[in-house]
Amino acid sequence: MELRHLRYFVAVAERLHFRRAAEALRVSQPALSNQIRQLETEIGARLLDRSTHHVVLTPPGRRFLARARQLLRDTEDAALAARREAAGEVGEIILGFVPSLTYHLLPLLLRAFRRHMPKVELRLQEMDTVQQIEALVKHRIDLGFIGLGLTRETDELRLAQVDEEPLVAVLPEDHPLLQKRRRPELTLSELAHTPLYLAARETAPLYNPWVIVLCQQAGFQPNVVLEAGQPATTISYAAAGMGATILPAQYAKLCPPGVRFIPLAKPVPCYRYFAAWSDTNPHPALARFVEIARAEAGRAKARRPAAARLGSPRARRTA
User: Fold this and answer.
1) Half-sphere exposure (CA, 13 Å, Cβ side) for 21?
2) pTM value?
3) 33 and 22: one domain?
């Protein structure tokens, strides 16, 4: 039995007329009659009583019509679901992200994605960049939002930059560098004699070495007093007057008391965020998610206040 047998039978049963059914199906009437006979032979029951002037459903035919209609509906529903999943309109994405994205960009991305693709389920996993790269290669997550200072694609991964932001020095509000500051920025070398507190290597395995290299390129070996806790924890050390830290500007969204966020002047590069995915992951929604992420990040960047305002008291109150 094939689906066309069911469609042919339903067309005849609903019209009780072979010629009209044949016209609706765009097949010849003899071919339609032959298909119905084949169906009845395969089932082993007469479904239609035919005469020169009338076509009538038999009792088995009435029961079979209800089942045939349901089977055709189920088949169409299954085909529609398959087409929608192939188009990335339904399904599930397991999404990894670095912690700093939670303070600004990630909520915007998720809201935009829900607006454009409401039938796709999202499962979020907070992970550092190294953990995400491993999970992507092993297909434990579908898409990662990673943060790196400098990066490039590998044989396993594809990358698309979605955002960038300046690095800022986080200083106690009574730090000597802030007392007579006339410029909106600090050079990295001005931190040469300031104790630095960085997050634990376990939570920032790529970021910490990158910051240290930036300091060395600025002409000094940084005085890293401690590497411990989450990136946001280092702000507490600065607020306590124990030293400073260097973070992406999104951490200014926390608005903690007792510190100032001062942009670092060029040539210090921006901290860049990338969408990353495995080249062998066939998930059809990934490309659409990346497209939405880049568009939303562009709009967020256009709304973002100038980096120079980060260090002002008003910017801290309204960030």
Assistant:
1) 22
2) 0.66
3) yes
Domain check: are 105 and 151 in the same one? yes
pLDDT tens for 132-166 read 989 998 999 999 999 875 556 667 788 888 888 89
Report the candidate in 90, 94, 85 with the shortest Cα–Cα distance to residue 122.
94
Q: pLDDT tens-digit profile of 203-213?
A: 788 889 999 99
Distance, CA of 261 to CA of 310 (rounded, Å): 6
| Residues 281 and 155 occupy one common structural domain | yes
Neighbours of 120 (CB within 10 A): 21
Q: How sure is the predictor about 307, in pLDDT bands with cuts at 50, 70 and 90?
A: very low
5 near 35, Cβ under 8 Å? yes
The answer to whether 192 and 177 are in contact (CB under 8 A) is: no
For 5-19, give the DSSP string.
Answer: HHHHHHHHHHHT-HH
**148 and 181 housed in the same domain:** no
Q: Residue 32 sits in which domain range?
A: 3-86
Query: In terms of domains, do 17 and 160 share one?
Result: no
Q: What's the domain count of the chain?
A: 3
Both tokens of 70, joined, read 């349901």
How far is Cα 206 from Cα 266, in angstroms, rounded to an integer? 21
> Residue 107 in contact with residue 154, Cβ under 8 Å?
no
